[in-house]
Specification:
Elements: E1 3-8, H1 15-26, E2 34-35, E3 50-51, H2 54-58, E4 62-68, E5 71-76, H3 77-86, E6 89-93, H4 96-106, E7 110-116, H5 119-128, H6 133-145, E8 157-160, H7 165-175
Parallel strand pairs: 1-6, 1-7, 2-3, 7-8
Antiparallel strand pairs: 2-5, 4-5
């Protein structure tokens, strides 16, 4: 049975980076969401998000939807079903509310992997990302209001993401039962 693994966690827990690295290093495709917000520097249409106007967003049938900072986000049913039918394993960067919505469509084909990080790590990562104090406050308040620091209790799997990214990736691959062999240098 083909599976989708939802990478969930509070803001700045590393969800987006993990999803990108799983594709870049291991070819694990991501479900791509639609959004009405403008692209951030370096983001590409069809790679990071499908960037659309509000009118185009409203005409899509979505498997899950969310609103954040006056912008809409959503995974189209077409995107979800296409990826789940094409690939044995795919991933999605999503919050737990979105996970619950997506679970209604995918059932047992969807599992959550919660990236566990503490608030101090979140704050320092937000600063490194260049977020303003107001943006950081807004992200933390949103996360606390939606229980994103406590969602680990209802996740299918929990992976701590406060050290080296390679360690986190190996743990996630193990959860997915996709442990890759280590390559040893050839002695000559």
């Amino acid at each position: 049975m083909n599976k989708v693994y939802a990478i969930v966690g509070p803001p700045a827990s590393g969800k987006t980076l993990i999803v990108k690295q799983l594709f870049k290093k291991y070819g694990i495709p991501a479900l791509i969401s639609h959004t009405t917000r403008p692209p951030k520097k370096g983001e590409q249409h069809g790679v990071d998000y499908y960037f659309v106007e509000k009118q185009a967003f409203a005409s899509q049938p979505f498997a899950e939807r969310a609103t954040y900072s006056e912008h809409y986000y959503g995974l189209s049913k077409e995107e979800v079903l296409k990826k789940v039918n094409l690939y044995p394993v795919s991933v999605v960067d999503i919050d737990m509310n979105g996970f619950e919505q997506l679970k209604k469509l995918l059932g047992d084909r969807l599992e959550s992997i919660y990236l566990l990080v503490d608030k101090d790590t979140v704050l320092s990562r937000c600063l490194v990302l260049g977020d303003s104090q107001d943006e950081i406050r807004q992200r933390i308040e949103y996360a606390e209001k939606n229980g994103e620091f406590n969602n680990w209790q209802s996740a299918d799997h929990v992976v701590k993401n406060s050290g080296a990214i390679e360690t986190t990736l190996r743990q996630i691959l193990a959860v997915m039962d996709l442990v890759t062999p280590q390559t040893a240098p050839v002695e000559g």
